[in-house]
Input
Amino acid sequence: MRRSRKLGVAALVVLVAAALGPATGCSPIYVIKAGWAEAKILRGRQAIPDVIRAPETDERTRGKLTLAREAREFAMNALELDVGDSYTTYTELERDTLAMVLSAAHRDRLASRTWWFPVVGRVPYRGFFDLDDALDEQRKLEAEGLDTYLRPTSAFSTLGWFSDPLLSTILRYDEVELITTIIHELSHNHLFVPGQVRFNESFATWVGRVGAIEFFCTRPGGGPDTVWCNRARDRWQDTQIFSRFIDGLVDDLESVYGDSTLTSRDKVERRERIFDLHLDRFRTEVRPRLASLTFGGFEALPLNNATLLSRMRYYHRLPDFDSLLEENDGSLKEAIAALLAGLPVEDPFSLLPEGRYVSPEAPREPLSGRRPTPSGL
Output
């Protein structure tokens, strides 16, 4: 859950730099650069009400900031998330991208290269505020024979250690993605299990998507038949469809990677055939069922273990999160509380009901032949 203690930026940089040793793969220079970039973001904060009232603020920015304030109040009051002081301020960035996120994975198994950080534990990615630094590190990882994935990000959470500002990069999103992102990031303040990145991000995906539905479908002036309400619902359904697809692809890969009779080279050759099969499956069976989201990046980016693991972090067992919602009479607030009540456990995914997720042992029907579930999947 959210940290109650706050640190100054300089103190945090010293703490992290001291805690990180050579074995972590994160040099003090890397930590100091990251701390300095975060310090610039924090120094640029302005109170959101002041920005809204400022005569130089354009109408689009004013409208998005007003909606963001409403979303924060909703997360705090309706969902009872521990939002702290996050998103009470706004920072205008000098660039279109907040940071670059780099991840890496072994080619013959679904295992990420990880880095250790204080507070959050081991994580399977590193953030860079400088593109050249990110590209240099990517080349080093690829020289080690690892798959890599470098992507931009427009938002992140400091888990309550600082009062995270709303960033100008997020305002480029449409209304549904803006609210989804805000609730997603605020959910990290409320529940964060150290060393459980896949659970943390899948949890936040669920809270962000379902929270956006509740926000748009119940807010004054909104309602169940409004454009944004319907769009938020469609995107949650699309996200669950994609989650099923990704989990099925992972199951097929694991059957190859776990075969002890195969050499590393054999596993890599067979994975390419599985990748091709599932890319075709995505085009012919998954994409035609999507109502709002396209997941175009799945086809546009090279498919390797690093790009796949990055998607697994955000889309693992989402239909089971939806089942948890149903068990709590559709109340997101109560479903979140049920998860918190079950912690700590070794595997937080064990707190989810199983049913919609297809386990590796169970035979999977073709997507086109599955019967719809009550929520429309």
Q: What stands out?
A: DSSP finds 13 helices and eight strands in the chain. Residues 227-257 form the longest helix (31 residues).
